[in-house]
Fold this sequence. Notes:
It is a single chain. The chain is built from four helices and five strands. The protein has helices at residues 56-65, 80-91, 93-96, 110-125; strands at residues 6-11, 16-21, 26-31, 71-76, 99-104. β2 (16-21) and β3 form a beta hairpin. The chain is globular. The two termini are 16 Å apart.
Amino acid sequence: MTDHYHAVIWIDHREARVFHFNATQADEHVVHPHDPTVHIHHHANSIGSGHAQEDHKFLHQVAAAVANSKAILIAGPANAKHELMKHLESHDPKIAKCVAAVEALDHPTNGELLAHARKFFRGADRVTPQKA
């Protein structure tokens, strides 16, 4: 994998798509949880919150995939993006400091995700120096 300054993670409870990229190139890495959760609904008079438990092994794998990145954008459709950020703050604070933003983003294609991330960092890079 080529070392790029920027990375974008699109995450839900079924997968994390990680792209390391620059203006013209991108490398993709997909991380899947060992035991992907099924869609859970909370029903009245049932035990449990109706939410899937955090998969720390999965979140560790996602963190490892961006360990060398200096500027990271996390995106996704539901709570997984916030769970990842919380996990990074607790377990990988060095990586957490590299997160530029956590954004809601439904289910983009790979091209749409990269275009969004490039546009985001194009603006952010104007005020943030890139140091390796």
